Amino acid sequence: GSSLEPQEHSMEPPAMPEEEMSLTTVPSPGGHQLFGYVGIEAVLDQMKIKTMKTGFEFNIMVVGQSGLGKSTMVNTLFKSKVSRKASQPGQEERIPKTVQLQSVTHVIEEKGVKMKLTVTDTPGFGDQINNENCWDPIIKYINEQYERYLREEILITRKRKIPDTRVHGCVYFIPPTGHWLRPLDLEFMRRLSKIVNVVPVIAKADTLTLEERAEFKQRIQEDLKTHAISVYPQEDFDQDPDDRAVNDRIREKIPFAVVGADQEHQVNGKRVLGRKTKWGIIEVENPAHCEFPLLRDLLIRSHLQDLKDITHNVHYESYRVRRLNESNRP
After folding, report:
1. Rounded to an integer, what distance in angstroms lies between the CA atom of residue 25 and that of residue 38?
2. Out of 15-24, 90-99, 194-203, 252-261, which region has the weakest mean confidence (pLDDT)?
3. Are 81 and 304 in contact (CB under 8 A)?
């Protein structure tokens, strides 16, 4: 017979039948052993089903001068027309006199997983003769989204799921000059990297030779290190050794030299995304041609949840602490 009371008089484990002894014992960190299958791993399936039903949000911002292919790059990332519409057909697009922020929201679905995607564009950034404080509207917008989330969070009766409009990632487009980073680039990334995840990329990298591209990337990395600018993935937030090893390989290749294209072409009997030139077709998803696959993997396939976690646990948390300290002052 079996008893639910602990037997303290005997220090030796009770004899087990041969059928039970054949079961695999799984040691746990606490020192206990599971004799056979319990079903704890089913919680992963439960989380997956729940996430697929509710969906999730992802908000991305693209910043850079006009003509660097920001809208095309976003369309290439998600393989659909998700960026803002520049203008009506036949009309000339005018450069705004000040930095304006335009957000477009779409619900995209892949294999049953729904994602509410918000793309925020910044037309007018860096296009003026005097670009002094042109980053102020962007900083104001990011902080406004933190404030909106904070106001919902501190309500007495708050929603079960707070709408998340916080910017999870900011892709900054560097002009392919082949020289050094401009003071505008350095100042923007220095200010924005403190409140949002900044991912720098070299726009239209097909205008540079492979040697020019390698030298330009090295100079950018030196500039970032000299000015103590921490872009995503930040080294300070790597806690797990495996994550640190993966992120070290990513940091060696930042900024990514990317090429965007939203048109398909026929190459060796296959339809590929690319840009057609006189000497051939630049395949966007070919690692030998550009580093767009690395950017896509970072933003979507490998680090999307990490971008959201760092936004919530680091950037939003620092904003929340600062705001609550301000409200508690006499």
Report:
1. 12
2. 15-24
3. no
Give the DSSP per-residue string, 11-68: -SPPP--HHHHTSPEEE-TTS-EEES---TTHHHHHHHHHHHHH-EEEEEEEE--TTS
**Domains of the chain from N-terminus onward:** 45-79+97-328 (3.40.50.300)
What's the predicted TM-score (pTM) here?
0.82
**For residues 271 and 265, is the Cβ–Cβ distance under 8 A?**
yes
Which H helix or E strand runs over 169? Answer: strand 169-174
Per-residue model confidence as pLDDT tens digits over 123-159: 878 888 788 888 999 999 999 999 999 999 988 898 8
* Count, residues in the chain: 330
Question: How many Å apart are CA 194 and CA 314, to the nearest integer?
Answer: 10
Long-range contacts of 233-242 (CB under 8 A, 24+ apart): 233/298, 233/303, 233/306, 234/310, 237/310, 237/314
60 in Cβ contact with 168 (< 8 Å): yes
Residues 168 and 311: beta-carbon distance below 8 Å: yes
Residue-by-residue DSSP string for 77-108:
HHTS--SPP-S-TT-PPPPPSS---EEEEEEE
β-bridge partners, 93: none
Q: What is the mean pLDDT of the chain?
A: 83
Q: What would the two tokens of residue 313 be?
A: 């646990």
Structure tokens at 232: 């995503």
Tokens found for residue 307: 């971008």
Q: In what order do the strands lie in the sheet with 270-277?
A: 264-267, 270-277, 280-283
Q: How confident is the model at residue 1 (pLDDT cuts 50, 70, 90)?
A: very low
Rounded to whole angstroms, how far apart are CA atoms 142 and 84?
Answer: 19
